[in-house]
Amino acid sequence: MYSSPEEISQALERYRAHRFSVLEKIISMIEHTQPCEPSEECARHYESFRKEFLEMLLENRPLDIDKPIELLERWDHFKHIADITVGTSVDTDETQRISRREAFFSALEADLKEKSPEDIRGTIAVPPELRLLAEQVDGVWGPGLSEWTCRFHGAFFTLYDDPEIDTEVPYCPPLMDDETLEEFDVAIGAMIGHGSEQECWAVLSRVRDNSDQPWEWRYYINRYEIDSRVLDTIPDALSCLASMGDLAILTPIIGII
Prior knowledge:
Blueprint: H1 5-32, H2 40-57, H3 69-73, H4 75-82, E1 88-89, H5 94-115, H6 128-136, E2 139-141, H7 146-153, E3 155-158, H8 163-167, E4 184-195, E5 198-207, E6 216-223, E7 227-231, H9 234-256
């Protein structure tokens, strides 16, 4: 059931490619927006507005460009500051990455063992796919450019400073009100990413009333009052996250420009 490192790597590439295609649409929208009442003064204002608007979407990071389209034309140059734009991020300090990763998983496994039901406590371990994912990236971000991701949709998974994720492994029973999880028995779950409009969990589960089935890790994505899904693997979860995202990415931008 679990994915190989190669399958997770391929899923990440597909996710980035999808997000990049949406970025191209956003850039096109910004490039072609026009003032309601064209004039030379408005035209000059809009030239600077387009660049400033793009910088705002990238968390006010200054860009050495004259037009938004240059972000795509010179992507290799800007990729390091816009990585989150295509959905993932990786720290440049490999030593720090390893240290943070090991600290995260040590704390996570300890909490899982402490809080899991006694009859399965001896078999509890960190989701193996999650370890494989963390070896490749430090964060996988949900729909939206940096501005909207940070304010609204949040992360599918992140190893960046977040004491709630690092130290708390909430039980899943409060989530059982969600009809999406009704077909599963859930032993325990850990929130692996969140935002103001989204929670992502790894849940140790099996099909309800099927005690012969082994407990397996699945991934639960809950976008409050919009949609929720249970996915068998991380590649499935990334595919789902991409399909959820297009409207969420474009709508706030349409509302502003």
